[in-house]
Amino acid sequence: MMPVLAEKYRTSRVLGVEYPFGHSFGVVGETAMQTRALRAALDLLVTATEPETRVDLDETWPGDPKQAYKDWQPSEPSPIVRHSIEAIRQARRESANRES
After folding, report:
1. pLDDT by 10-residue block (mean), the chain, 100 residues
2. Is 48 exposed, middle or buried (0-12, 13-18, 19+ CB in 10 A)?
């Protein structure tokens, strides 16, 4: 989902997909799209002969990717996300207090 980061950390094989987070293989319920992504990943696994091989899946997201990302989000944040949000808010409060 983030080929640039995969390249930065020198992963051995990268399949670049332009899908929103939470949709690594494609649209929920679109088995043909998901199968194409899976086959591309498996083909890359089998055919890559050199380290850091990158292949981009030639498929675009059908619709607004921002909306797909929003729709994927759970109604309540997970405990780790909730903790992270509170830690960020606390750090901002402390920073504001030091500045005043």
Report:
1. 75 86 88 95 92 88 86 84 93 90
2. middle
